[in-house]
Amino acid sequence: MRLTLVGTGYVGLVAAVCFAKLGHEVIAVDREPVIRGLKENKLTVWEPQLEPELADVYANGLLRFETDIVQASSDTDALMIAVGTPTRSDGHTDLGHIHEVLSHLMQAGTCPPLVIIKSTVPVGTCDELEATLLAAGLHTEVAFNPEFLRQGSAFNDFMEPDRIVFGCQTPQAESLLRQLYEGIEAPVHVCDRRSAELIKYASNAFLAMKISFANMMSDVCEGYGADIRHVMSGVGADQRIGPEFLSAGVGYGGSCFSKDLQSLLTTGKLIGSPLPILESVAKVNNQRIPRMIAKLISLWGNPSGKRLCVLGISFKPNTNDVRDAPFLTLLAQCERHGIEVQAFDPVVRQVGAKSVQLMDSPYAAAAQADAVMIMTEWPQFAELDWPYLLHLMRRPYVLDGRNLLPSPIISQIVDIDGAIYMPVGRPMERSPIPWAGVSSPE
Ligand code: UDX
User: Fold this and answer.
1) Global ipTM
2) Closest residue by CA, ligand 1 atom 28
3) Containing structural domain, residue 250
4) CATH number at residue 136
5) Do 35 and 127 fall within a single domain?
6) Domain CATH number, residue 213
7) Does residue 442 sit within a domain?
8) 333-363: per-residue pLDDT in tens?
9) Annotation: binding site
10) Are 71 and 33 in contact (CB under 8 A)?
């Protein structure tokens, strides 16, 4: 099949490469500077496997890059749109980029027979887009085909999904969509467009709810001296609940969960149906960083002038994405409390905030710090020389915001005089010998 795909953000680019790998002729369209970078294999997103796979399909001629939407979609079977749909400050979804794409086609008076929306859009959007095209004299079906890609494993998620969802109106559209995904083995869920639009939002909202539930229970565990890991593995063993997305920590981040939750809340309000469960999901998440700050204050007393070493900046491991990262909230709150931040991340090289010093190594970030906080569960943080790292600090306090460190490391930590290990939703561990004052690193 010939597919034109507009938008080469992380979803669009992964989709373009994967559809090309499935044997389709794909033209990816974006603005000039982005396309120039892509032609030189310079990617703006960091996703495992993406670079070599892209180089491969580009070299084979299965994937091409263009900047002119009208030209690129003049001789294609379907046009897929994977542009950003950010949430505006009033909670409504900004569909400006999608409208911009369609306006090019309407001006040219031409459109492929099928437009597939991959961007996440509020319920009813595809109906409206199709009506807009029709009003401009274009008889095109608009279908909805959501993505469920996680950053860091987007490739596998695309090629081996749990399910594929098609929201479409006619057998012709369904048949084109099935051809597009031929070669991928997964149950296909075909339904009307509005239901498909809601599947995407409800899935993300449900996952966010699982995380907030685990975080809420972790507070109860802390109060009663229980261990959230045991509680959630016992709960998740029930097949009706499932074990995933029950890890307590510093809260969820990333470009999807908060945005989609907000959008769904607005959707509910528009029809007079508030969604109280989801309001609480967001509220619980918003309390995670204040709780981490409260923990620091419980250790330090006055936080002003203290230095915090933060390990991990991206919203999760295996990505350099800092959108909505809990780190950014932490940074803002540290600034308010007069806490100095030295941070290290294996791949993030800039944050766009002055109030943080980005360091080249975890050890440099730990220099003279009054506590270290793990914000992202990069596995390499568990491999650090923790006794050495603590030796570089002013106070040997470890706040493990992701429950990352294994027992042998925790034992090494609390072997150090005055050390405290504070996980999430589990009892704190501390050295039997109290902290004796500022250590003097060699
Ligand atoms: C998510 C959805 O999983 C994906 O289906 C959708 O298409 C896009 O949004 P992504 O944002 O890449 O994907 O990350 P995900 O792995 O879902 O994690 C989101 C956030 O939740 C991260 O900050 C992560 O650290 C946090 N999280 C996840 C937890 O705090 N606990 C968990 O148990 C799982």
Assistant:
1) 0.98
2) 245
3) 200-281
4) 3.40.50.720
5) yes
6) 1.10.1040.10
7) no
8) 999 999 999 999 999 988 988 889 999 999 9
9) 30, 85, 120, 200, 245-249, 253, 259, 316, 323, 417
10) no
